[in-house]
Amino acid sequence: MPHNDSSTITAYQNGLKEVANEYATVFSRNGQTTDAVRARAQSILDGDLNPSQLQQVLNELQQPARIAITGYEQDVDDLTTKTTRLGTPSSSSTSGSTSDTSSNDPLGIL
Fold first, then answer.
1. Does residue 103 lie in a domain region?
2. Which H or E element spans position 20?
3. For residue 85, is it within any domain?
4. 106, 93 Cβ separation under 8 angstroms
5. CB 13 within 8 A of CB 51
6. Averaged over 66-86, what is the pLDDT?
7. Contacts of 7 (CB under 8 A, 6+ apart)
8. What pLDDT band is residue 76 in, cutting at 50, 70 and 90?
9. Distance of CA 25 to CAs 14, 43, 72, 91, Å?
């Protein structure tokens, strides 16, 4: 398929729109897009970026994702550690009178 094919150009422009929208979403603060973010997103839309600059944008988008993944992995590790310390409740601790909250609350939250 030639590079000047209109469907190729349209696909490229649509891809740039997706990247620009994602950039604005990722880097907006508390749901508010700053002027700097708007300007960067517009430069993406305008196609004013060379391949190296476009790669830089993609790297910028990946950084918050990596941070979020690391945070989620830490949360999973923390929860795994906490549940391992609690152990599995015995059958006697999960049955019995409902007035005894300690035996009906193996997590100790009631």
1. no
2. helix 6-26
3. no
4. yes
5. no
6. 88
7. 1
8. very high
9. 17, 15, 20, 49
Residue 91 lies in a domain: no
Query: What token pair was written down for 67?
Result: 């941070």
CB atoms within 10 A of CB 71: 10
- How far apart CA 14 and CA 63 sit, in angstroms, is 23
Going from the C-alpha of 107 to that of each of 4, 34, 83, 86, the distances in angstroms are: 63, 44, 9, 7
Give pTM, 2 decimals: 0.49
Most confident of 18-22, 62-66, 74-78: 74-78
Domain range for 34? 1-73
